[in-house]
Amino acid sequence: MKMRLLLHSLPVSRFIIRCAALLAPARERAEWLAEWQAELWHVCHSYHARSCFHGNAEVTDFCLGAFQDAFWLRWNNPRSIPRRVFRTGSPSRCAFSLAVWTAASLLICFCLPGARRAIRPSPYRHADDLVMISSGGYSGAQSPTIRLRDYQSWRTSAQHLFTGVAFYQPIRKRVHITRHQFAELSIGRASDNLFQLLNLPVPLPVLSDATDQSNREYTARLILSQAAWRSLWGGDPGVVGRVVRVAGQRALIVGVVSKSSWQLPGHMDAWMLEDEQHLDALPSSSRGFVLAHTRTSGSLARLDGWRYMTVRREDGANDRFDCISLAQRAQMPSSIFLFTLILAFLSLPATTPLPLGEYPRHSGRLPRATRARRWIFLSIKFALVVPLVHFTSLDVAYGVQAVSFTTAQCIQLAISFFGFLFALRWILQDQRKRCPVCLRLLSNPARVGQASQNFLAWNGTELICAGGHGLLHIPELPTSWFSTQRWLYLDPSWSGLFSDAYIASASLV
Questions:
Q1: What is the SS3 assignment for 206?
Q2: Cβ-based burial of 14 (10 A; exposed 0-12, middle 13-18, buried ≥19)
Q3: Model pTM?
Q4: Cβ(256)–Cβ(131) below 8 Å
Q5: What whole-number distance in Å separates Cα of residue 59 and Cα of residue 55?
């Protein structure tokens, strides 16, 4: 019975061994298959001779071990495609690493709400004619800067400049959701024409018991954000038309606004639209944000491309208010990106030499594809590094909601400039240390010469290509006759020796 079980398991085990051999390198496949078959015969007969064979568990373990050996041989073989493509210092590994980091920074940018808004265009129609009015700078800070009495004055005195003016003020109020459920929400108390200026349709309130106007309590319109609608009301579409109380005041829920529809300063969970009568009841010194729609693009005075408005006070002095359009505000991250990139290019010659070195003509006439691959690799690094720095600056600058728009711009400006400057330096330095033939990083640096021989003989560092394509000589002290690094091509007969040495070293590792 034991012998029959053993004979029954051997054909299956041999088939498994042959499948494992298909994963081994082709040059070593026959040798390893013979080795595994011999060991399989030894394992089976040793258990049978000792009368301790209990099924196929031991044989199965041996067959799985053959798969582990095959995977190890496939990955650690110097001639295998994964090892050749992603070996240390190869251009493929460099490009793959840059692509992974760039994709990660882009993914983080899409996950952070502030950074995601920074890369999107303005969602509002005619955004160039919609301006945010602020005092003390055009940047449009996150804190309110316009007093309510100034807004009230502009509604009547600035009709020659604006077709409409809206006001909103971020407040923190308790909302009565159900009989025993309350929630503290960040609410934007706004004029009833705010969403009309933004071209966002809002339903009109539908009030019940309208027969007795004198006894009916005033009801404001409440618009929920999509996040608050889902977290507090569970995404129930029947919430529209329901009346809730906001700090004791009745408010009718008239709609839900998506997160992408609001790109103005202030984080809002809901907006409570009130008529001018109730806004005028607030203290005149209350501060908020003011949004206006200009009559024409040139209705406001301009200074260096920025629009501003001058208002005369009662004492005869003038107050200046900056007016930045929503289109300009949405384009600020892109403008900072282009500005810092150009500034980094202009500053690069002062921080690192621009020449890549001297590369003499090759006696064997390198193919055009080999010569073009060097410049293609340089372009690929530049194409991956630029978005990597850009998205990283957006992640850091706009990822924190509490940071003001002015602070975020300063953070993006600093990170973009220094990031581009050091990234461009690294691109040039990395390109100088690569073989012009195989684009592999040069290795095995060796000191040649003495410091006293700078003007009599060559003194510097020598690096070698592991593929045997040539040597790179870097002078220790640039002189008039040896001012930059030089590449020396080796005869093709040397390539075999260097390749074998590299493969042997990789096999030992």
A1: coil
A2: middle
A3: 0.66
A4: no
A5: 8
